[in-house]
Amino acid sequence: MAVMPTLQKQRHPLAGGPAQRLRLAAVPTGRTFEQALAQSALWPLRPTGLEVLQINVGKKCNQTCSHCHVDAGPDRTEMMSDAVVDACLGVLADHPFGVLDITGGAPEIHPAFQRIVETAAGLGRHVIDRCNLTITQLPNYRYLPGFLAEHRVEVVASLPYFQSKQTDAQRGDGVFDASITALQELNALGYGRPGSGLILNLVTNPVGAFLPPPQAAAEREWKERLGRGYGIVFNQLFTITNMPISRFLEHLDHKEQTEAYLGRLVQAFNPAAAAGVMCRGMVSVGWDGVLYDCDFNQQLDLPVDARVPRTIFEFERTSLAAREIAVGPHCFGCTAGSGSSCGGALNV
Amino acid sequence: MTDHANYYHAPDLARFSEVGKGSPELWKAFNAWYGAVFAEGALTAREKALIALAVSHAVQCPYCIDAYTTASLEHGSNEEQMTEAVHVAAAIRGGASLVHGVQMRNHLDRLGM
Question: Which of helix, strand or coil describes residue B49?
Fold first, then answer.
């Protein structure tokens, strides 16, 4: 499959987080995200719990998807060190996180991926692997489906659409076919099948500058289409809004749609979605051990509240649980319509 | 006043509500009715968005075309489905012209020998 150079490789002006924040700040939106929260009695935004420890183990990926908020790709070299991995696993062992959510890049590329999964599963934590599916088809990673099943890892798999045209447009030529093969292999191991306990959820981002469809209706259609067309079963479909940062921001600028898209997100601000945003229940760890409120803030170099410990080495649960969550215009991406999170729409 | 002289100007769609300034009560009534029309009912909101997209082409309203292209996508329709809806509108428009050929034939009959 064809891969494109990342923004970083291109030395694109929007490659860095601060440059993206400046770009977004220059877009007139009528009201700030802080004002929108304040009008909903949610300002300042604080956590409601710390259930999920999300770790972004690195930016390397075998794909360069056009909407990627990480600007991940084969040319990225950032990778979580053993010291940071150990610190994350130590925090997981010492604190009552119910979920370890592993993301990237393609997180399976990380040399310690197996150790992370085995340790977390051994601690009795629910483990999520945010998988691009095609990685399982590469020679060095053919072990993955069996390994994930053995450790009862929940697979959250990216698939933008149930047809190849739209999927390949976003993720690269041949991605749809490889993804279908990967899903069929996961199904053969029991993933997505009732009673197996092996959870297979799909994630879809719109292939363009519009909001995702209603999640429940889309899930029904996807199950029918993928079942009839390819014999594929899965548990849930998560609809996720494209975040106007990184590569998708570059795409919006290229199409002169940045202002219109931001305007659409602001217009669709939903206070109920804002109350349920994912950052209120998680801590996100960057490849270098820095703590963030979410993976999007991570890519914008927007770390947690300066008044609390800012690295995994200094992890301190009480102050993190009471921190003020850092927000910006991009946050409208998580509060538009039915909302958007790593777990899809928020049923509001 | 605006700084452009075009009859159609995409940003004007966002100013639609200004029409209500001339008659707030009528605007309010229109909005209530419009919202009810597009709510889920015997037809899904997705089906209604596709109908609206097709009608937008039949009445050739560029604002409506933009709005219901977005709405159709956001209700889960894809390019193929939306294009078929546009063809339905075009077919009805074309057929509506063509069926008047019967009128022509009726008059031919009257004039002919």
Answer: helix
> In chain A, whose CA is at the least distance from the CA of B45?
A214
Residue A64's CB is within 10 A of a number of other CB atoms, namely 23
The whole-number pLDDT of residue A348 equals 52
* Whole-Å CA distances, B87 to B31, B51, B83, B84: 29, 12, 6, 5
Nearest to A182 by CA among A192, A173, A169: A192
pLDDT at A151: 98
Give the whole-angstrom CA distance, residue A284 versus residue A304. 9
Give A-chain residues touching B70 at CB under 8 angstroms: 210, 264
Nearest to A277 by CA among A259, A295, A263: A295
Q: Quick: pLDDT tens for A186-232.
A: 999 999 999 999 999 999 999 999 999 999 999 999 999 999 999 99
| Low-confidence spans in chain A with pLDDT less than 70 | 1-2, 340-344, 346-348
* Cα distance between residue A224 and residue A206, in whole Å: 19
Instruction: Supply the pLDDT for residue B11.
Output: 84
Closest chain B residue by Cα to residue A221: B76
Give me the pLDDT at residue B10, please.
Answer: 86
CA R_g for chain A? 19
- Contact in structure between A303 and A297 (CB atoms under 8 Å): yes
- Gap between the Cα atoms of B86 and A211, Å rounded: 22
Burial A196-231 (b: 16+ CB within 10 A, else e): eebbbbbbbbbbbbbbbbbbebbbeebbeebeeeee
- Asked if the model's pLDDT at residue B6 lies above 90, the reply is no
d(CA B82, CA B69): 8
Give residues 318 to 337 of A whose Cβ lies within 8 Å of B: 337
